[in-house]
Every structure is written in structure tokens, then in C-alpha cells.
Design goal:
Largest interface: A-B, 22 and 27 residues
Shape of chain A: globular
CATH topology of one domain in chain A: Four Helix Bundle (Hemerythrin (Met), subunit A)
Order of helices and strands of chain B: HHHHHHHHHHH
Number of helices of chain A: 7
Radius of gyration of chain B: 21 Å
Distance between the termini of chain A: 68 Å
Number of helices of chain B: 11
Shape of chain B: globular
Radius of gyration of chain A: 21 Å
Number of strands of chain A: 0
Strand content of chain B: under 5%
Helix content of chain B: 55-70%
Oligomer: heterodimer
Distance between the termini of chain B: 44 Å
Largest sheet of chain A: none
Number of domains of chain B: 1
Chain lengths: ~170, ~350
Amino acid sequence: MHLILFIVFAGLCLAGAINLLLQTHPINSALSLVVVMSSLAVLYLLLGAEFLAAAQIIVYAGAIMVLFTFVVMLLNAGREEHTMGSGVARILGFPAVAVILGVIATVILKAQGLGSAALSDPITSTEDLSRVLFRELLLPFEVTSVLILIAILGAVALARPGGDERRVGK
Amino acid sequence: MTILQFFLWSLLKIAVVTVVMLLGIAYTVLLERKLVGRIQNRWGPTRVGPFGLLQPLVDGAKSFLKEDIIPTGVYKPLYILAPILSLGCALISIGVVPFGEPNVGPGGMHLFQIADVNIGLLVILGITSIGVYGIALAGWSSNNKYSLLGSLRSSAQLVSYELALGLSLVGVVMRAGSLNLRVIVESQSSKGMATWNLFGGFQFVAFFIYLMAAYAETNRSPFDLPEAESELTGGYHTEYSSMKFAMFFMSEYGNMITVGCVATLLFLGGWTSPLGELIPAPQNIFVHALMPIFWFVLKVFSFLFLYVWVRGTLPRFRYDQLMNFGWRYLVPLAILNIVATSLWLAYQPLHR
């Protein structure tokens, strides 16, 4: 049962990813990305990470991608254009992707002691997850949140109306 | 229980819940028309059936029989996908809601809940957040500036208020110590109304925030700017006709019911009696099983009543007021509520 679900959703994930590249219209690509993220959530669930699956749906598919589509709709971006570079990218792109995939695959396959995750019934509860997150990994967790806070402050500073010019003017 | 039995029981539960939900949607529309009618000093529908009770059936037949027009300028795949997505999300999230006491079915099965999920609350939030796409895509694919403006308003509004909504629920989750809806209800069931999160749990600030955010999340008055007919003709569903329009309409009322269910579960003690142990538990097994359903439906009904009442009373907000209210008042208030609740929870074991 787990294997069937895994194959179905892994296939859906890959199909969405390929569709994302092939579609010429930005909104179709954005929606394919939503499909990829949702099927990734199902894969997390199959691995027993229920909280991660829910967070993936709520944060990525529900919030971030909505903003993506929002921007695409707001700019009313048309079909993508073919410039001089896109022909070169097509010729060089596929070999480059194959090489990168090969490198990543060999590194992962060669690496020892990565541990393994099985498609299984037991589910890591939210309680267990938060215990690890807030006891053993508290420092990395807090540092990450500070990092995100800095990013938010940066965005606010950039978006402040005329904040930059005023400083230059003085 | 074998897997086949499980499968058949689940199918049965899904069928029953879906039919009840669709009927509930139909009669919520009637409730709204009747109540708004009364508020505005008129009768509302009275002609079809006694007290107009058959009006929803006639409305449904009308929607089915109308011509389904697809304008030439629309982007067809998304134009057709949007109402399906909208209605689908509205109907799916009821699947994790527990309507009655657990373990009453044969073999200790949850007869009154389709799926007992550990992270039930997050599932509902997740499905709601996917539901945004229905409205956003409807507006964009219609190729109409009014629709686009409506859906832009709606996406911005839904993303902003989802934050306040989610944060307002954190206090309740901390009190219950679980995201499982059944556990959350059981955590407030010991003394009836006095242990509801709304009163005994001191989560009334959270309830207020949830209420406001829920009006915005379901695009209901006073926050129904995405379909403000005086500015945007019809908002995101301007170009939709016949059954596709009806699907948006149904999804709005379906979302109202779901939001009412969540409010009931999280703040009003779910299926438990508001009087606690004052009424002795009924001896008859059927009454014993059905009393919780009665309380649950009554609570959801009062929530829906409040919804319609507010719509009949309050004027619409302006868009900048809406955004200011969400970000400047509701979100900080929700964060303060989280801080206060966690301090209280940390203080309690010391005091005991």
C-alpha cells in the first residue's frame, strides 16, 4: 500500500516538475510547482513526518505559492519569450543537468552512514518533533529564526518609500 | 477490523457526511435569505413549499437548467478548474471534524468522524489555504479586470488573515497539548460551559480574533470585498454562470459551515453538553449517541446565525481598513494572546 502510494505520488511529483519546465505560461508553471509541493507533502507523510507534511502544504503550497501566483497575476506576465540566449541554454542545459545529477547521485551513493528512512506506519508525532527541535536543536532553530528576521528587516528597509534617497540626499 | 470493512465503513461515512453537508449548504442559503429578510423587515422566500422550505431545491434546479456560458476570452483549463478546486476544498476539510463521541461504532470505531487524524487542525488549515487558488485562478482566468481585481483582493486578504487565524488557534492548541481535534474537545469537556476554551479557558480574545479572521477567510460581510458588487460588479465570479457560479456559491457556504465546525470544536466544547454533568447521561443507547450530535449541530447553527446577523447589520469595510485591521490589530493581539496563555500555562504548575 505504501509502495503504491509512493509510486503514484513520486510520479506525480516528477510529472509536475517536468511540466513546470515545459510550460511556456508562467501561471501554469507556478501551478505545476504547487502540484510538486503537494505531492512532496504526501511523500513526507509516507515517511511518517506528519507535521512536516502539513507545514509543507500550509507554508509552501498555501502561502508562498499564492504570493507567486499573485505576483504573476499582478504583472500579468505573458508567454515567455525566446531570446538569443535560450537556444544556447537548450544546447548546453541538458548535458549540464545530466552532469550535475550524476555528481549528486555518486556523492549520495558513495556517502556512508547517512542512515535510512523507510516507508512505514509509525508516525513521528508533533510532540516528539518539537522535543527534538526545542531541546537538542534549540540553538540552530533560534539562529535560523534570527536569520529569517534579518531577511524580513532587509525587505522592509528596501521597500520603505524613499528611505534610500533621503540618506543619499543628506 | 479488516481493510475491506474499514474501506466500506469509510465510504459510507463519506457518503452520509457529503449528503448532509450539501443539504446543510442548501439550507444555510435559505436561512440566510429568511433571516436577512426579517432583518430588513420583509418575508424572504415564502412561496415554494411551507415557509419556503423547498426553495433550495428550486434554486438548485434553476442553476442546473441555466445555460452554461463560457466567454471566448477565458483561459479555459483554469476557468473550469477553479470552481472545482473551490468546492472540493470546501467539502474535503469536513472529513477530519468529529461530530459526536468517539468509540460508539461497532468495534470501538469512530462512527461520527471520517478520519481521526493526529494533526486534524493543521489539515483543516492546509486545505483552507489551498482553497485560495480556486478564487485566485477564477479571477485571473476570466480575463476580466473586475474579476482580476476581485481575486487579487481576495488572495491578499486570505493570505493576511490566515496568519491571524492560525495564530489565534495556538492558545487553544497549547491548552489542549495536541493538534488532534478529538483531544482538543475532550480537554474542555469536564464541566460543560465552565471549561469551554471560550469561558473557562480564557481564550475569548482568541475567539474574537478567530471570529474576525473567519469572516475574512470566507469572504463574508463585513469583509466581502472580493465580491463587492458596488465596485466590482460581481468580483471573481463575474464571468461565471449556471452550475459553475453555483459551485462558488456552495463553496462559500461550505466554508462557513467548516469554519463554524472549527469554532465549535476549539472554543465551544465540540459535541459535549454545555450543561456538563447537570443533565444525567441518557440510558437509551441511541439517545446517548445522538445527543452529542444535537449539541454539535446547535452550536454550529448558532455560529451560522451570527454570521447572517453580522451580514445583515454591518456595512462593508474599505480595503485599506481591512488590511490595517488585519496586520496592525489582529496579528499583534493574537501574538499577545499566545504570550499570555503560555505564561499562564507555565505559572499554573508552579502555583499548584
